Prior knowledge:
The complex is a heterodimer. By secondary structure, chain A is an all-beta fold.
Amino acid sequence: QSALTQPASVSGSPGQSITISCTGTSSDVGGYNYVSWYQQHPGKAPKLMIYDVSNRPSGVSNRFSGSKSGNTASLTISGLQAEDEADYYCSSYTSSSVWVFGGGTKLTVL
Amino acid sequence: EVQLVESGGGLVQPGGSLRLSCSASGFTFSSYAMHWVRQAPGKGLEYVSAISSNGGSTYYADSVKGRFTISRDNSKNTLYLQMSSLRAEDTAVYYCVKDNYERAFDIWGQGTMVTVSS
């Protein structure tokens, strides 16, 4: 149950697009289409942004999109806005019937 | 309004025990699997445990297996986490989380802080 690998930080200017990667193994990200992404602002509970690799829950902006290739999933945020500045975590279901999170990525909007 | 409210956190000595509770409202609690996820101060999210909708199946991260027990009372719309043999590394905010039928976590509680220290 090793944590998924995410970059520690990414940054972008308002209006730009950024992509956060999430690398696992064939026992988690590569083996299932159960990858989800969470946004967490300081002092707040996480919020579900993407589930099943690329599905958005109702109410989540279509500026957020997800994809997967092999053992790596990605979250793309287009048209960056100041309120997107937060920590982002990926998660995947695993062959051990538990879940695993990534280490988290701090997004800075310049 | 769909809501999860955790309680039971606090300060406990190493080796001690604590039981967390999570009261659910605004949805049919008995229809959904539920989870516990924790976050150590200044650190990332860590998966802890899951329980099926009827309580018949439970799952644990290796880091808590044999020490923590997840359970639920569907008649009371309440989820529990019994924690024993607590260690300093168990210090964290513990979140109660609802499953969305798609192995993702769509509703989170506000969290309850557990501090393991002498």
